[in-house]
Amino acid sequence: MNYYLYKKKILEAGLVDVIIIQIPRILYDLFNIYYNSTNDLKLYFNYDCETSIDGISIVKRKTYNFYTSKCMETVKSNIFELNYIIINHINHNLSIITTKYNDILEFIINELKIPLLEASKLIINQIIDFEKQPSIGYTILYRGAILALDSTIGLNDIIYSLSLNNSILSGFIRDFSACTLNYIKRDQNRIGIFFDINNKIKYNIKKFHLNDSSDEYSLFFIPPIHPFLQLYCSGELWHPRTKIGNNYYKDKPIEINGLVCDDINQFIRNCDYLLSNKTIEELEELYQQYKSTGQISVWQKKYLKYKNKYLELKKYLSII
After folding, report:
1. Which of 174, 208, 246, 250 qualifies as a cystine partner to 216, CB 3.0-4.6 A?
2. Within the chain, where are the H helices?
């Protein structure tokens, strides 16, 4: 959300009584989980390569946006109701939205009556700090993996479509196996506190537009799906991922990992919009370049604000 752009436009229009509220994506998703728990929503949206409407694959380029729009129609009233819940909560103290995000987090935790591990709170508070900052033309994506090993080309020339997320909670309700939270908390010790054998990876990617020929558009696919929907989706193609090089089929048959449509013919038939305008080798070079310049980086070790707290937790673990 470009909060400052909206605020500027509102002021220019002279709408002095209109208040613009900025809320980090992670808190919006937590409110959404709270909303789901109180309403027992049965929403489910499948974006697998095999899913179809009237026999037509929904992930073909011509029908993807149609399916997404159709999903939006079914949840529009839920989105408005969720927005009302969020606004109603913070309306008691508007300063909370700029200075006390932790109070909102504690409210959600208490209302859900789910104990959140201290390490999980630290992760969420870190993400709140990322997401409350002005975007300045960038978007944030997340991934749980070992960054040093991350590559779009694996052993034996296996091609990978790497899975990312707009939020660590995307897919939480219907597809936790694809939820980033599942990966950044993959390594659990005996008392339930998680640490980072799997890295917590943060992508700072310049925003781009369809067919704008930018490096970002060449490398990344970011589906046009509303944040509300992403929490209830399952399958492979509802979340961001890296694309496949345009020379994948010219030299020899290859295997594509990370996608349901891992067969070449199935990929051509159902996932053509994941085909990049660059080659396999160019995409790998670009991905490694992003890593070397820090646009793709591990955040836990570098984010010093919480370093001492993590050291305290690790010291605690070593003595019990």
Report:
1. 208
2. 3-12, 25-39, 61-90, 96-99, 101-112, 118-131, 180-184, 215-219, 227-230, 264-270, 280-293, 307-318
Tokens encoding 177: 């196996």
Both tokens of residue 78?
A: 């839920």
Task: Kindly give, in sequence order, each residue whose CB lies less than 8 Å from that of residue 25, ignoring residues fewer than 6 positions away.
Answer: 131, 166, 167, 227
d(CA 42, CA 226): 17
**For the segment 223-253, what is each residue's pLDDT rounded down to a tens digit?**
989 999 999 999 888 999 999 988 876 555 5
71: tokens are 């999903």
| Position 272, amino acid | D
Locate tokens 């201290």: which residue?
118
Highest mean pLDDT among 8-22, 128-142, 227-241: 227-241
Q: pTM (2 decimals)? A: 0.83
Instruction: At 68, give phi and psi (nearest 5°).
Output: -60, -45
With H, G, I as helix, E, B as strand and everything else as coil, classify residue 85: helix
Distance of CA 68 to the CA centre of its chain: 17
Scored b (16 or more CB within 10 A) or e, 245-263 reads bbebeeeeebebebbbbbe
Query: Residue 240: which of 167, 313, 303 has the closest Cα?
Result: 167
Instruction: Give the span between the Cα atoms of 59 and 271, in whole angstroms.
Output: 6
Secondary structure of residue 143 in the 3-state scheme? strand
The DSSP element (H or E) to which 199 belongs, if any, is strand 199-206
